[in-house]
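Batch job 17 of 40 flagged for manual review because the log was empty.
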Amino acid sequence: DIKLNYSKVLNEQILNKKQLYSIILVSSFASQLTDLKNAALEESKEYLDEELLEDIYGAYSIMSMNAIYYRFTHLSSEKAYTSMPANLRMQYLTKFKTNKPDFEMLCLAVATIIGCGKCINAHEVILRKSNISKLSIQTVARIASIINSIACILRIIK
């Protein structure tokens, strides 16, 4: 099933190749599995330039922090945390080099894998306001899910 799902997303025309491979790559980073990250880097290299690679690393970096923090604030029974300043630097959320929708898709993929509902909702709303279709947004979540599943299987067979 996983092999067929991966093949399907590679052959769909929902996202362009840069979007597709950048989401695969950032999702492989979020999987925290070196072999998968290396395979994704190799598979995606013809589609991604240096600027986009920098944004992929930036999105992963900022979202690996934000998704954990904001997941804490919305899962904690103490609701006061949601109104307290985060006191975390998040400048890359406004200093990315690619276009806003593509960067937001990267952030959504990481938030999906980490499982932060607050981050998922925030980035999904921005994507919809940017006129990104629900099908494209769902595709980002599907790709993240497939890459996460590949990582889970690789962990247990090694």
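Reviewer: the log was empty due to a logging misconfiguration, but the result itself is present. Helices lie at 2-11, 17-31, 34-44, 50-75, 92-95, 100-114, 117-129, 134-157. Unflagging and moving on to job 18.
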